[in-house]
Each structure stands twice: as structure tokens, then as C-alpha cells.
Amino acid sequence: MKIDVVTLFPSWFNWFTQQRHVQNAVLLGHEIEFMDLRASTPLGAGQVDDTPYGGGAGMVIRVDVVEAALRERYGTAPPPHRTIALSPGGRRFDEALATELAAEPALTLLSGRYEGFDERVHEHLASDVVSIGPYVLSGGELAAMVVMDAVMRKLPGALGHDHSAVEESFSEALEGAPEYPHYTRPFDWRGHTVPDVLLSGDHGRIREWRRERSRERGR
Ligand code: ADE
Hints:
By secondary structure, the chain is α/β, with parallel strands linked by helices. The protein contains eight helices and nine strands.
């Protein structure tokens, strides 16, 4: 998979790209690149935004600036693959969307700042508008990292051993429910002990107990 991130703050992603599963994905041949909107703006003095028509507070990222960044990179705008604008008003990001996006060969993530993008970016340059939750962040960078994290850990091999992502929260294996509780040593912590079934060695019972706890949490 090839992921390009359009941002005004590429350095925000330095920490993210150093994380183990991201580096694993890169070693496996997946690619992440960052495109600084200011580097390709056709306007003077690195301008990328403008005041909103109709008045009001804040600045809006211009559609022609986003178009220029995409054209410079792909020779065409919109790009020839799925392009996601991060915005609090978009489709809510969830595990199903993460799975869907993990199957794409290429993604472009557009992270906005200020009051967000001119609406024509959503309408004509992005294929999807995605929100990570019903709250307003100061920009789309953290949202882009959330989306990349959830998508990249689904890439085969990214977690180190393939099994880790199969039976986890919201997976098909758990019928979309949250994951069952986990326990490890000590068996008895201040009088709070581990459920006996987990020490029974009866794998059928353990599987059944886990499914049941997972279903309960999903209700
Ligand atoms: N940009 C600002 N807030 C956001 C959110 N909740 N989701 C996605 N992008 C955002």
C-alpha cells in the first residue's frame, strides 16, 4: 500500500513513522510520504488559506492550493485512487472502514487546519470525507494518524505475527463485538482472582467463555 499525507505540518508525523508496526510495514514494502501544502502552493509567500466568504472567524484552506498539490504529485486531480479528507463532519471512522481502506492499493489523506477545507475539496477532490469522532480537533493531522494506525495494523505482517489482528475487538471473528477480557499473572491480585475457566485447559470452554464475554460487551 502507498499512503500519501497532505499536511501543513509534516513534522507532526515524525513520531508516528518511528513506531514499530509502521516501520514493519515500510520494511514489507508499504510506503508513506508526506506532501507539504505550502511547498506546492501557486500563491505567493506560502499562502494556503483565505478568509471565508460570508464572513466569520478563521481561515479556510483553498481548493486551488489543494488541487495544485495533487496535480504536482499525480499529474491529475482528483487523484486516481481513494482520497480521504479528514473533517469532523465526515463519515464516522470505524473498524469496518479501516478494513475497507486496508484493501486499497493507495490512499491519499488530506489533513486540514484552521476552519478546514473549502467545501469544494470535499465535493470534487476527495472520494471520502471521514471523521474520527464527534469532537473538533485543531486539525486533521491526529485524525490522519488514527486512520493510518488502524489501517496499517491490518496489513499482513505489520504486527509481527499475522494472528494478532484476527481475533481482536470489532473483528469478524468476534462478530463485530469488543474483545473479551484478558488476564495474566499473578493469579491472585489483592483477592481479585482470574476466572477459573481460563486455567481449565479446556479450549472449547475457554473459546465459549470468551465469545460470551465479547457478546456481553457488545450489547
Ligand atoms: N479535523 C478536526 N476534527 C476532526 C475530527 N473529529 N475528525 C477528523 N478530522 C478532524
